[in-house]
């Protein structure tokens, strides 16, 4: 399944809509227990406008009132605002570069890799396969976090949608894979799942890049297509946390279209490869 391109930014909202959105963000943050105040307002509006029609509310004020009264509406709304779009070996040239760098983890006695914003797990599975093919899956402890407990629960199941398998397989080979994804899968109760050995040693946890602190030291951090939805202050906060969590000479992977522009530590990194968002901390 090919992922849709990022849509162009919408026109600037009117002052009245901006004020309404500010009140909506305050209210929904309190309801969800997730601070959305550092999310880009244009990105939030782009996700919220279709929900106005789906919930037949017409305005953000009415949508907030419905979310307060209807728990299912709140769940749907939170799903819209936290948006989980992912795919295995997404941006195959990036993962091909990672494949050439991941052997460096063997130089550490107890390497750790953090997949921040792991969503439903496809990116996590990609890294686990790379580690196995590098002979590092037993040595490298992998941590997978997301702010949504719902998608984390799905990631822990290791499920693969059969209709996506051919696209995943193609991306795997474009990223330098020499085997077959089915070698890592098994049929269980009529469902296709990754073998438990790819999942069972992963540490899963709910974590918010904007409000939670560093919880370990890592030699590789993958935080792809997450910070792009934060405003400048939010990106600065997230990158400060990522830098604090990454060891010198460690690697940081971002998403296509993301950069270290708003990182207070951008001078401490060098970019690897031409145009790929993979960085190494040099100090």
UniProtKB/TrEMBL annotation:
The chain positions of domain CheR-type methyltransferase read 18-283
Q: Does the keyword Cytoplasm apply?
A: no
GO biological process annotations for this chain's record?
A: methylation
Q: Which InterPro entries match?
A: Bact_Chemotaxis_MeTrfase, CheR_C, CheR_MeTrfase, SAM-dependent_MTases_sf
Give yes or no: UniProt keyword Methyltransferase: yes
Which GO terms label this protein's molecular function in UniProt?
A: S-adenosylmethionine-dependent methyltransferase activity
Matching Gene3D superfamilies, A to Z? Vaccinia Virus protein VP39
The record's annotation in Pfam families points to: CheR
Query: What are the alphabetically sorted keywords of the record?
Result: Methyltransferase, Transferase
UniProt cross-references to PANTHER family, sorted A to Z: CHEMOTAXIS PROTEIN, CHEMOTAXIS PROTEIN METHYLTRANSFERASE
The name on file for this protein is Protein-glutamate O-methyltransferase CheR
Organism source for this protein? Aquabacterium soli
